Amino acid sequence: MFADQLTARFAVVPAGENPPVPALVTPSVRQALDAKLGDTVPLALSGASLSVRLVGEVKAVPGTADTGGGLLLDLPAATDWLIRQQASTRPTPEWWLHTDGAGHAAVADAVAELPGVTVLDRREVAATAARDPYWLAARTGLLAAALGSVLLALVGLAVDVWATTRHRVAEFAVLHTLGAGPRLLARALLAEQTFLAGIGVTVGLLVGAGVGATMAPLVILTPAAGRPVPEPALTLPWTPIGLTALGLFLAALTASATIATGVRQRVAAVQLRIGGER
To answer: Which pTM value belongs to this model?
Structure first.
């Protein structure tokens, strides 16, 4: 003779108040809930009705690019609420780990050895994306455009210095006649070109930074040609940028100095030409 005995489960939970769980919400989810910040709303979570208080708003949540909305809960507070209310917890299917640069590889290897765990390494994904042929082609094109811009800037600086000197050589001849020496004229030419080159390099840096901030996020897409979440962060490598700007500035000064060394011959030729016309 067999008899089934009913089993009973008991849980001891701490006493006290059970406040709503703080949460961050995206605008689309907040509009769907018809709530505003500071409101407390019920949230269905794996068969449990969780009391959630909206404490802040975020533009997007990673991993929700397809749905366009998401909600971030305070995990310790949500666990305490479930234990107090239903004496149970819910499994966490995904964990986000933050590591420093030195221990990143060790942490990734250690987590990969855990059974039943799939590791998605953002640095490894970024390295794989950097080897993508489409990205390599785009990066090569942008590099070629940058080198072309530098070459065009060098040609423009040289032509500007030459044209300015040719245009003002008659003025230099008059100043030389009035008593200005060749060294004074050369220093004046160098000071003028230094000022103009400094303004040109500064404006070029500002325009380049603006173009980079506008265009760079638009060419960074996910493998599905969607917008990545979070949005790409613009970082400017100031060392190569500064070296390029300094090189252009020195190139302008070199061209000015080269032309300034021959200002005496140019002024003398103009003075003879003026005398011949008279």
So the answer is: 0.49
- Separation of alpha carbons 195 and 198, rounded Å: 5
- Residue 9 burial (10 A CB sphere; 0-12, 13-18, 19+): exposed
**Torsion of Cα atoms, 239 then 241 then 243 then 248, to 10°:** -170
Extract the tokens encoding 18: 């059970």
CB count within 10 Å of CB 100 equals: 7
Least confident stretch, 25-34, 103-112, 182-191:
182-191
CB atoms within 10 A of CB 36: 10
Domains of the chain: 21-86 (2.40.40), 130-277 (no CATH)
Of 186, 188, 187, 205, whose CA–CA distance to 247 is shortest? Answer: 205
Contact 268, 191 (CB under 8 A): no
The distance from CA 240 to its chain's CA centroid, rounded to whole angstroms, is 16
The residue count for the chain: 278
Query: 27-54 pLDDT, tens per residue?
Result: 888 888 888 888 888 888 767 778 889 9
